[in-house]
Amino acid sequence: MELLNRPRRLRTTESMRKMVRETRVDKSSLIYPIFTIDGTGIKEEIPSMPGQYRYSVDQFPYALEEAAKLGVNNILLFGIPEHKDEVGSQAYAHDGIVQRALREGKKHFPDMLFIADVCMCEYTSHGHCGILHGDYVDNDDTLVKLAEIASSQAEAGADIVAPSDMMDGHVTAIRQKLDEDGFKNTPIMSYAVKFASAFYGPFRDAADSAPCFGDRKSYQMDFHNGREAMKEALLDVEEGTDFLIVKPAMAYYDLLERVVSATNIPVATYSVSGEYSMVKAAAQNGWIDEERIISEMAIGAYRSGAGMYITYFAKELAKLIDEGKIG
Q1: Would you state the pLDDT for residue 14?
Q2: What confidence score (pLDDT) does residue 90 get?
Q3: What is the C-alpha separation between 246 and 132, in angstroms, rounded?
Q4: Which of 177, 194, 280, 315 does the annotation list as catalytic?
Q5: How far apart are CA 184 and CA 240, in angstroms?
Q6: Spatial CA neighbour of 221 closest among 202, 235, 241, 239
Q7: What count of other Cβ atoms lies within 10 Å of the Cβ of residue 227?
Q8: Res 63: pLDDT
Q9: Distance of alpha carbon 141 from alpha carbon 129, whole angstroms
Q10: Which residues contact residue 4 at a Cβ distance below 8 angstroms, ignoring those fewer than 6 apart?
């Protein structure tokens, strides 16, 4: 048979396949989420996320050192305070858990890039992401607190602030407060497209942030809606966000691709706790090849246009890059 076109010619050897790859992974685009907790001498494994830990501030530098040795230098920081209240005051306190962790991290690793999550669910006694009026999360009152959180984090050394609350107008409120307080050069990485997803279950265990009543569907997005996702992304661009995040990742690569195509700023996707825990559980049962699965998940994100990949597998991916198994 005489065939003019034979695509398999470019798949004949490993070297050939690597040379013609259309999608590549680089360590500099990996972002590793870390949980910090009040107390001392604490490194406790998260039961629903094997291999992930909560660190007290004194142990936090050891976690950073491990990541840095592997070439993972971008950290997304979450905090779990000892005391919670109705207004989540520890989220914006000068000596809050994230603020102290930021100062400690910057002291030991000044060249690492620290992204501080801006939300209230870990800090409120009711577990919702804002200020309650009865059973309703009030949008505009919450904006005031979000702006205070972002400013306090920037003052503590955050390189980027990342609002994950899904309140209308959050980028505008945070940008104005940052500028007023002298942090004009602190970028905002907005969770612009964040769905009310079942994939967050293990995170709520990790961060002790499950709502005490109801759910978050009045502010996080309905996962049936693609056009609404684009609306949210474009509104945050208009408000001046410097980055966008699509969250979760794996079930939303179609929307990731659409957001990237419609905007001209950097876009990240967040491979969330449920994605991590499903892979870990299946791997522990011998049902899947963990390395190959996490490689495919990452490549799917980058192939869909992600410029940055937020993942609990960041360290494993960095090792795979060093070993030439992904890249």
Answers
A1: 87
A2: 93
A3: 26
A4: 194
A5: 12
A6: 235
A7: 9
A8: 98
A9: 12
A10: none
Given the residues 145, 177, 247, 280, the one annotated as active site? 247
Query: 124-169: per-residue pLDDT in tens?
Result: 988 788 888 888 889 999 999 999 999 999 999 999 999 999 899 9
Of 113, 98, 193, 106, the C-alpha closest to 151 is 98
Which tokens go with 240? 């001046």
- Quickly count: other Cβ atoms within 10 Å of residue 93's Cβ: 18
Q: Rounded to 5 degrees, what angle do the CA atoms 80, 270, 256 make?
A: 150
Q: Which residue has the tokens 């090849």?
A: 289
Token match 């995040």: residue? 245
Give the residue among 121, 94, 92, 97 at the shortest CA–CA distance from 34.
97
Is residue 280 among the annotated active site residues?
Answer: no
Pairing relation of β-strands 136-138 and 131-133? antiparallel
60 three-class SS? helix
What's residue 209's pLDDT?
64
- Residue 201 and residue 48 in contact, taking contact as beta carbons nearer than 8 Å: yes
325 given a catalytic annotation: no
Output phi, psi for 178, to 5 deg.
-60, -45
CB 246 within 8 A of CB 270: yes
Give the C-alpha distances (Å, rounded to integers) separating 196 from 175, 221, 255.
25, 5, 15
Backbone angles phi, psi at 286, to 5 degrees: 75, 20
pLDDT of residue 201: 86
Closest CA to 245 of 28, 35, 31: 31
